[in-house]
Amino acid sequence: MVRDFTYSIVELERFLTEHNADDGIMHALRNIKHAIYDYQIMKFGLQPPPLQNSTVSSKSAKWVPKSHVQMFLQSILCACSPTDNSTHLEDDASTSLSVGSETQGSRNSSITSVAGKGWTIGESARNTKIDYNDEKMYQEHLKQLGRNWNLDIIALSNFKACMQNGPIVCVGRVLIDPVGERIHPDFKRSLTPLLSMIQDVYLPNPYHNALHGACVAHMTAVLTKALGLRQYLTPIEEFAYLIAALGHDAGHPGKTNAFLRSTQNPLALIYNDTSILENYHASLVCHILKSQEWFLKHLSQQDWENVRRRIIQLVLATDMMSHFTHVNNVKDRRLNGTFDYKKNAEDLWYLMVLCIKMADIGHNFLPWCDHLPWTKVLFDEFHMQGDEERLLSMPLLLFFDRSRSADIPDSQLGFFQGFTMPLMEELTLANPESEYIKRYIIVHAHNNLENWKKYSKRSLDDIAHELESSDEVAVIEDAFVD
After folding, report:
1. Do 218 and 224 touch, CB atoms closer than 8 A?
2. Which domain of life does the protein's organism represent (predicted)?
3. 113, 213, 407, 478: least CB-packed within 10 angstroms?
4. Which residue pairs, CB below 8 angstroms and at least 24 apart, start in 317-322?
5. Best-predicted range by mean pLDDT among 81-90, 110-119, 402-411?
6. What residue numbers does the annotated binding site for AMP cover?
């Protein structure tokens, strides 16, 4: 309701501007906007949202130091609109659903509840019938994690078990369990509380949420196998890589670095306006890991330092402001003939950085019926920021102005050609022996590019409606890497 009220104010300002209201009226409206914003901040600050708890949270698990949690809550007060983050999942016994008796109404309620936590972005847009209570079908989806690029991860997020435990926990266990067993026999037993803590600090943003973190981890795992990189990683390094992917947006407030700088958010002051969110995500994940005594006792001091170093390296690389620096790290060495990821650890990690970057924008390389829903929630998040920027009389960029939603297809073309393609091409050239990216991923990228050209000057809602009402069945083949 608060967001609706905010949007009404924004619409009123737009109406008055279009009808050339005099300066006195506009000045009065601006004062009202600032008063509303100040009131919302004050109200939100008095009752900061509690951290979410999933059904798999360990009550006995040691949590992040209280001072850091308080800093986390305080740091986002000026960055987030007031939302109700007080929803909790109850104990397993009270939330378990009867497979045979669940009604469509209760299922829709479950989806709404879980979507409010950022654990799903809705139901799958693929034209397939799925029984989300079918445990066998759920297990079949889990088996594809880290192996099948074309896995319908949106569908996975809607299965009952994933709704109860959350995507970071469900995906993280599948990807990390085999690695943990190579680190220590007891590693597996303590993994779930760790994953739950990372999941709990994700906020219910439309796009930068727990499902996005899980999706990026899945994609990074596929890419390392497809490019033949996994064999060069130690178990500790592979763990660092996967945990960095899972937590790369932990605590994301649904606002950009530019917004945090412009509003002088405490995080901007802490990290000196440099990769603000990425520094914060990396710090938060490392704080959570360090709070786990069971984890630290299985590592030497050198192992811990390496884990932390790789997490920082990988997460900071997801800042799009440094995009071409990382692409050129590989490109320049490849062109001068010195690039050798098989023998040079630095080159290997340059490639690992490109993998997590590609996974971070990985929905661009998914089938159109998956790419479109992710694009829609991304721009939903951008437009929510744009509404607040209007409320604060801040200048809006193209991506954040909902009144220019028909320009999104053309902006996507620019992003594809300027950012997506150079990254994809460099990963392809880095390991010419691998045909996987050419065979599966590039095909999706070019198909999506053609669709954005086709839908030029159309709103995302119109495009999505056309997809939903179409009788055409999208045949999406599996893309297993092994």
Report:
1. no
2. Eukaryota
3. 478
4. 317/278, 317/353, 317/356, 317/357, 318/248, 318/249, 318/278, 318/356, 318/357, 318/360, 319/257, 319/275, 319/277, 319/278, 320/419, 321/257, 321/275, 322/275
5. 402-411
6. 208-212, 249, 360, 412
Tokens of 159: 């299965």
- Is the four-CA dihedral 184, 186, 189, 194 of positive or negative sign? negative
| CA 153/CA 242 separation, integer angstroms | 17
Query: In total, how many domains does the chain have?
Result: 1
- Binding site listing: 208-212, 248-249, 360, 412
Domain extent at residue 62: 48-94+144-152+166-469
Q: What is the CATH number of the domain that holds 437?
A: 1.10.1300.10
Query: For residues 319 and 331, what is the distance between their CA atoms, to the nearest angstrom?
Result: 19
Q: What distance in Å separates the CA atoms of residue 184 and residue 347, rounded to the nearest whole number?
A: 28
User: pLDDT tens digits, residue range 82-106?
Assistant: 333 333 333 332 233 233 334 444 4
For the stretch 128-167, pLDDT in tens is: 789 999 999 999 999 999 999 999 999 999 999 999 999 9
Within a domain: 283:
yes
Alpha carbon distance 378, 399 (integer Å): 10
Check 68, 141, 208, 298 and give the catalytic one. Answer: 208
Question: Is 184 a residue of the active site?
Answer: no
pTM, 2 dp: 0.81
User: How far is the C-alpha of 163 from the C-alpha of 114, rounded, in Å?
Assistant: 6
Q: Is residue 123 part of a domain?
A: no
